[in-house]
Specification:
- The complex is a heterodimer of chains A (465) and B (196).
- Helices cover 26% and strands 24% of the residues of chain A.
- Chain A is α/β, with parallel strands linked by helices and 465 residues long.
- Chain A has a twelve-stranded mixed beta sheet, sandwiched between helices. In chain A, strands 19-18-17-20 form a four-stranded mixed beta sheet, covered by helices on one side. Chain A has a two-stranded antiparallel sheet with strand order 1-2.
- In chain A, strand 15 (373-374) and strand 16 form a beta hairpin.
- In chain A, 45% of the residues are buried.
- With 196 residues, chain B is an all-alpha fold.
- Chain B has ten helices and two strands; from the N terminus they run βααααααααβαα.
- Chain B has helices at residues 8-16, 36-47, 54-57, 68-81, 93-102, 105-108, 115-118, 120-133, 143-153, 155-186; strands spanning 3-4, 136-137.
- In chain B, strands 1-2 form a two-stranded parallel sheet.
- In chain B, helix 1 (8-16) crosses helix 8 and helix 2 packs parallel to helix 4.
- The radius of gyration of chain B is 22 Å and the shape is globular.
- Chain B starts with a strand and ends in a 10-residue tail after the last helix.
- The chains are: A alpha/beta (465), B mainly alpha (196).
- Chains A and B meet through strand 1, strand 2, helix 7, helix 8 and strand 3 of A and helix 10 of B.
Chain lengths: 465, 196
Amino acid sequence: MGDLGIPASRRERNPLIDEDGWRMLCFIREHSDAPRWNYRVGDRLLAQDLPAVDAFRRRIGEERPRWSAEPPAWLIDWIRSLRERVPLFRQRLPRGFDLCRDWAYLPTMSREDIAQHIERLVPTDADLSRLIVYETNGTSTCHALDVPNHPSCVARNHPLLEYALARHGVLPRFSNRHVACINVGAEARTVMFPSVFAVWNNAGFAKINLHTASWKPDRARRFFQALGPEFLTGDPVAFGELARWGIDYRPKALVSTAASLSVALKRQLEATYGCPVVDYYSTTETGPIAYSSPDGQGYSQLAPDIHLEILDEDGFPVAPGELGEIAVSGGRNPYLPLLRYRTGDFARLQPAGTQSDPAPRLLDLHARQPVLFRAVTGAPVHPLDIGYVLRTQLWVQHELLQRADGSLRLSIRPGLGQSIDRPALREGLLQLFGELEIEIVERPDLGEDRPGGKVIAYRSELSPV
Amino acid sequence: MKSEGPPLDSLTRRLAETPGIFLAEPIIRKRGKVDLAAVTSDLLLVIGGELQSPRQAKRFSPANIAQRNQARLALICCWLLYEDWFHQRTPLVEPIILLLSEGLSGLAGIVDAERFVADPERREELVRLVLRHLSLRPAGETANQAADRLKSLDSLERERIIREARAREEEERARKLRAEMKKKRAREAAAKANRE
């Protein structure tokens, strides 16, 4: 134990925790209605990281992104500075390549580049001592993916979230005497933990899970009231559960992430909770990209250090207003420089927003459509949980369809020379869904008849959320 | 480099004066301005070859954006080979077909095509490379002189040396990174306020 009675293990997780922050963490952790915590984690932020986070916070407010058809000068300089240190950049940029003139011909990056050749993306001189790794779930795509990151980069997500909230008129209190945020999940299997964030003055935070295996609704209701979080984050499925569990705590805002939020659910949540509902577009690979504009007209670009493009199949920018795939260049992850990274999400680009936020906007955003599966009891089943079951097998692609009558059909393309353990898969799915009709079909040719071999991994006739 | 070819100077000067149309975008998947297959077919006739069938000519067309730089370099080479000296040199037809269809991919992977017009050293390199490909040496040079001079300019050779020097270092670094990621994956990361 240290001077303030803070255990060394906690100081390692939250190096900047203070006495009040520790009290806050203990208050959340030891609350009599708290869920069964199953994980410990902190922000791992050091004092030396804070000036950069503060500078970034100022920059977000002062330097709103402006869209241009040509890549901005800062981006060109950034790519040039990385060319010799990032093997993938070196490979894709022949000596003398004219970045300004020939930008549209620059090969795009994809999830496969990260999955298969991460060592070609991490700069050769990167200091790996504080590297952390996140696993993305591949909810709408296929495979899980390991994404390297740095605590100071993750910390810069906070001022981006603050900006989006402020644009919706929400100014949360960030102090070590308040709980800033509860992150709501609704999955059969996920981590739950309390923490504090140094960038929010050690304000409290809890990641909880609305699943009856780990918590009861009456305790959850009391827990929310006792903590009084300033705002909630969660995905659409989790917010749907929040209402279903009858949690009537009224935060200052709900921030929906991870899957796109339908207009109907957004309206329902606004009516139920009487607060702004911000739809937040962010991916593990890119960090936050855009937030739903308060005027309801699309999504405004958040960060000034990314360049957005809308591309056609060949990697050429489409005309402003046309639908195409969102690609991101730049970013702040020191281990993952993005060069025309195709997100797999689609939108139309509106080059400029309004006077209050002139940042470009994404209209008709088709990003990671949420897919709602239901168990025989009517409880939601999250694609993440299905992903955990599927991960026990070696496969190339899969398609899971839930029909309107609840029955399931899983088509799966096994890895080369592999076969699927059907009884194990069936057992895993039965545990999630209960006694529903489940058909499992091995299809070595799955996807071969689709453009680019892409399949829709999850579909449900019970969707949308 | 068995036979004597044209003088080096005339060819490097020709490259320096490459007309805009040979620097224009080759047509790739309906985008671009210049049909590389048509230009190449025409060149082969001038060299003394036979009329290419559409199927034969297709091998010169870039299939996708990834082949763009190679196609640009091929177009510049076409301009170079339109030089009077090459006209009606029928024995050169096959080597030229080989050069333009697949002989430029290595070079195009490391140097932007326009450098072979704008930069005097790269101009000389391209001329010497093309001549070597056709088993020719610049007029007035011995085979050894030509080989030595090309070696001193050879971008591919230089790239190979740099790659070799880097290879061990980068392999070691990749191994360390994978080990570090595996280790860190097993550990907790850093708390986030929201899922992404």
